[in-house]
Amino acid sequence: MKKKLGIAALAVVIAGALLLLWMANSGWLEDFNAEQNQVFQERIDAGTALGQSANQQQCLDQALQDFDGCLGYQCTVAAGKFLKACLVQASPSDGFCEGVPEFRDKPTEDDKDWAKGYCRENNIRGDNCRLLMRQQQLFCSQ
């Protein structure tokens, strides 16, 4: 039994190594990264464009609207890049940073509750909405 498990484990390791080798040499990873970078750059450009004619709250509202229903890492990162680019260009909004917890590298439970509460109150469905709200925290803490 131990011998069969050892052989099976070795086969899995070899198959994994071969898959990684193929991915590294096939250009797949470079193509994937290029595609992701293009998507992210498009979101940065869209955020910059909106920010030139919007205020900070409008940037956040648009980012959350676009993010609503996001269920993956890619759309979370894309929404964050949009929001950051937009906020840099946007005109100030009264009270935009009011009540926003100070940014910390490791969020506290209060920080998490604030972000979750904002997402819930605004009916934003997305697994990582609280991560997007950290962009507002970071912006307001600078």
Put simply, the count of helices is: 6
Question: How would you sum up the global shape?
Answer: elongated
Q: What Rg is obtained from the alpha carbons, in whole angstroms?
A: 21 Å
Residues in helix, %: over 70%
Q: How far is the first residue's CA from the last residue's CA? A: 60 Å
Number of strands: 0
pLDDT < 50 stretches: none
Q: Name the average pLDDT.
A: 89
Characterize the main sheet. Answer: none
What share of the residues does DSSP label as strand, in percent?
A: under 5%
- What is the string of helix and strand elements? HHHHHH
- SS-derived structural category: mainly alpha
Please describe what this structure looks like:
This protein has 142 residues and is mainly α. Helices cover 73% and strands 0% of the residues. Helix 2 (28-51) packs parallel to helix 4 (73-89), helix 3 (56-67) packs antiparallel against helix 4 (73-89) and helix 5 crosses helix 6. The longest helix has 25 residues, at 2-26. The protein is elongated and about 70 Å long. The model has no long low-confidence stretch (mean pLDDT 89).
SSE diagram, text form:
Elements: H1 2-26, H2 28-51, H3 56-67, H4 73-89, H5 109-121, H6 129-141
Helix pairs in contact: 2-4, 3-4, 4-6, 5-6
Summary tags:
single chain; 6 helices; mainly alpha; elongated; 142 residues
